[in-house]
Amino acid sequence: xxxxxxxxxxxxxxxxxxxxxxxVAIIVxxxxxxxxxVRSERVYAQIDWSLLLMGAGLFIIVAxxxxxxxxxxxIAAAGRLQLDRLPVLSALTAILSNVISNVPAVIxxxxxxxxxxxxxxxxxTVAVASTLAGNLTVIGSISxxxxxxxxAASGVAIGLWEYCRVGVPLTLLTLAIGTFWLSI
Length: 184
Description:
Layout (H helix, E strand, L loop, with lengths): L1 H15 L4 H14 L5 H6 L3 H21 L2 H8 L6 H15 L1 H12 L5 H15 L8 H12 L6 H24 L1
Helix pairs in contact: 1-2, 4-7, 6-7, 6-8, 6-10, 7-8, 8-10
């Protein structure tokens, strides 16, 4: 526990010192791995390899689709959707997040966000909408799949409709609140 606390403090200090987040994560993460007391075999036994492979495959498919499908015409057509309007961007992000999952949706949307009138506010909208939209359906976020899979392994079945009964109203409410909050 003390190593984790020390690592967290080091991360905070390095962030405030102006170090790039990726560099801080690699350095502190590497230090945490080098000073661990748990044997590698125990760590590897806990990894859900099929879920890891699915996530990697998802990013490969999204990268391929981004390169082959996001032509100049598609980007221009998306520009006509009035993505500068936060409710429109929020809705598109939520829909896309539940079609290809929330993290790949952000990767796809980056091509559009940089060309918007206020990219900073657009990024905040994409961040809020993709995070909250991940709660809409089981496939909205890989973490949902992990929870459903772990629950099934413990004998608790969570079906799509059972999940959506809670996920849909919760997501619509939180998306509306988040979009309103960013609009003011």
